[in-house]
Design a protein that fits this description.
single chain, mainly alpha, 4 helices, globular
């Protein structure tokens, strides 16, 4: 999700590389930097996604498989929306 948002920033701002200002892991900040507004059907899904943190990579507690599948589905849906908003028309 982080990479998709950073890619969207570059595409929408016509930037060849990501400026230092956008080198963050905070998904809310990255979404805001795109200037896009999530459609209503993705708002709650993005709220789940933004709970992801870099520290989760090192968590030893196992996550629920159903939660993981739902999380990945939400990533897919938001990523598809981002791609539709950044593709040439």
């Amino acid at each position: 999700m982080e990479c998709a948002l950073k890619s969207a920033i570059c595409a929408l701002k016509n930037l060849p590389t990501l400026p230092e200002d956008y080198k963050t892991h905070v998904l809310d900040e990255l979404l805001g930097a795109t200037g896009l507004t999530l459609p209503d059907n993705l708002v709650m899904k993005f709220c789940i996604l933004r709970d992801w943190t870099v520290e989760l990579r090192y968590q030893t507690k196992a996550l629920n498989a159903q939660y993981a599948r739902k999380f990945l589905q939400y990533v897919k849906e938001v990523k598809q929306w981002l791609e539709s908003e950044t593709s040439p028309r």
